[in-house]
Write a structure and sequence with these properties.
The chain is an alpha+beta fold. It has 2 domains: 3-44, no CATH class; 46-157, Beta Polymerase, domain 2, CATH 3.30.460.10. It has 4 helices and 11 strands. It has helices at 46-59, 88-106, 136-142, 144-147; strands at 3-5, 10-12, 20-22, 28-33, 39-44, 63-69, 79-85, 112-116, 121-125, 129-135, 152-157. Strands 8-9-10-7-6-11 form a 6-stranded mixed beta sheet. Strands 3-4-5 form a 3-stranded antiparallel beta sheet. Helix 1 crosses helix 2. The relative contact order is 0.18.
Length: 158
Amino acid sequence: MHCIINCTSVRKVRPHTPTIYTRPTSCVTITVSDPLGHLRKGHLEPLELARAIIDVIENLKGENIVLMDLHGVTLIADYFVICTGTNERQLRAIAEHIDTDIKKAHGVMPLHREGQFGSGWVLLDYSGVVVHIFSEDLRAYYDLEGVWREATILLRIQ
């Protein structure tokens, strides 16, 4: 059973999926049970999650990777990870590998996903960390680094 717990309520989301407990803070506490009932528990800070996501992007040759610290700038998220893919196939690979590799290694799944691979933009929302995967043209058009210029750039990989 898959449940999301916030400070006052529990609701069933989908049967036959891992159980994930979230806190109202930006930290993610997880409990994942496999089909045999074994439990794995962990605590993943948003910065640790962002670094794990960046490792996945680097392994798939994502370009112009930026990690932005949004503390004190907005309540939307703690960090943005922004990267560029060279074509639709690479956008798909980056998004799918982030999804599967982070779930496999840390038991964390995105809360929300936006965009289509063919559109040139995909967003993965992990609550404290939001990942933007852009084509080169759309990245220049939306200029998130410019929009959020008050944020601190913690990492830039060309």
